[in-house]
Amino acid sequence: MRGDSMDTLAGLVSWSRDLKVDPRGWPMHSNATPLKIGVPGKTTFPKFVKVDWNSNLNKWSVSGFCIDVFYEVLNSLEPSYPLPHEFVPYNGSYNDLVDHVANKTFDAVIGDVTILANRSKYVQFTQPYAESSLSMIVTVTPEHGKAWIFLMPFTMEMWAVTAALLLYTVFIIWLLERQSNPEFAGPWYNQLATSLWFTFTSLFFAHRERVQNSYTRVVVVVWLFVVLVLSSSYTASFSSMLTVQRLKPNITDIEWLQKNNATVGCDDDSFIKQYLQNVLQFNPQNIKGISSENDYITEFENGNIIAAFLELPESKAFMNQFCKGYTVVTPTNGITHRFGGFGFVFPKGSPIADVVSQAILTLSENGRLEQLEAHRFSLSPECLNSQKLDKIDSLSWQSFWGLYLCSAVTSTICYVLFATRQSYTGHITLIYSTMLYKLVGLVEYLHIIVRKLQGTTPNTVHALGVYECNSSTAEYTSSSETPKQSQAST
């Protein structure tokens, strides 16, 4: 009954300023009492929050990625939940800025404020609108020539598959040519060596060895096509590797920095400094605070720092501005140091925080946050081309598996057809030889019978070549007994 009564009153009661949601006991802000929002007065990376004094309007002008997200949230809430507001710059640390929300100096904080557990004890954060993790910025140097760079166009797996296909093709050519081709004569190891030489060097020049089997020609034609494609791909990839200047990071390991007491840099007004000391166990004397993105370049060039630790959004802003000579690396220990992300700050229990969080989730789901981030932090065309050219991957066998399969199947089919034909031809020859053998034997036997009937001497049979024709056993016995009978009659 109580729920029904509230639903009935909802259509009768109208709140001030046409508010469409029920107030929850918090003071409602209006143009007379706008929401007092604190913003960082000075940031290391102005792409997030930039504060300028607008003399024409006689007020502070605030811009940046964080402000863009806040205005998108307001657009999604209005007109059902208008939030009159004013920005108030604060030149202090981020921890002090968050504390000013807890002590009600500010009604909210908008900026590149990271969601941390110790801060969440006193204030309420919205859903994060930007992911955050620890990134390491290091300098890069040109990668000098390597002794085995000629192997880099292909992966090791592709080299192995290509070698296996070569040996298989050599074996098939040897089976097809070893009996009929005099060029492949000799002991079996000489035959295999000739086949290997013929197959491997067919790319470079014409051979004096000529194939005589038609099946071999088919195998060689398909193999030459495979070699043509592979050689063209190898040449293109190898030329790119030799032409494009490849860069490599100077440092990739946090442990190396710690063991060598290397000096690293981070934001002077960021929790990263405490994180490096307490979690990563860096010596405080080896951590240098930096207050401007341009100062990072100066410190790197002067050799005062070896690496810089930034949050992920800040590293994107840095690389957007300084893509040449620097890169973002993932520490080789395989651990990703994640944080809570960037969020807006409101007092504990504030109903506005829940409404803003829902709006941020909506912007994240419809892709609007990604568009805002791409607008502010997208790499310039020069940086994009530099990244693409630096990442020249070796060719993998997966890109050519269809070509390999075609060659292997063709070689197998040709040998099966050749073996079948040889077997069939040998069987027919054996049948013909057996029939002729029996026919000759029959003729010889009849010839002997006729001579006996005519009373001729069996010596005539020998003159006709009975023994040379290899007659049957019975005929041989008959002809050998005839001389004995002749002697007896004599």
From TrEMBL:
GO cellular component, one term: membrane
Record-linked CDD domains: GluR_Plant
InterPro entries assigned to the protein according to its UniProt record, in alphabetical order: Glu/Gly-bd, Ionotropic_Glu_rcpt, Iontro_rcpt_C
Keyword Transport: yes
Alphabetically ordered keywords of this record: Glycoprotein, Ion channel, Ion transport, Ligand-gated ion channel, Membrane, Receptor, Transmembrane, Transmembrane helix, Transport
Organism name: Ilex paraguariensis (yerba mate)
Compartment(s): Membrane
Gene Ontology biological process terms from the UniProt entry: monoatomic ion transmembrane transport
Transmembrane segments: 158-176, 188-206, 218-236, 399-418, 430-450
Membrane topology: Multi-pass membrane protein
Domain of life according to the entry: Eukaryota
Name of the featured protein: Ionotropic glutamate receptor C-terminal domain-containing protein
Gene3D superfamilies (alphabetical): 1.10.287.70, Periplasmic binding protein-like II (3.40.190.10)
Every Ionotropic glutamate receptor C-terminal domain range: 36-379
Keyword set includes Mitochondrion: no
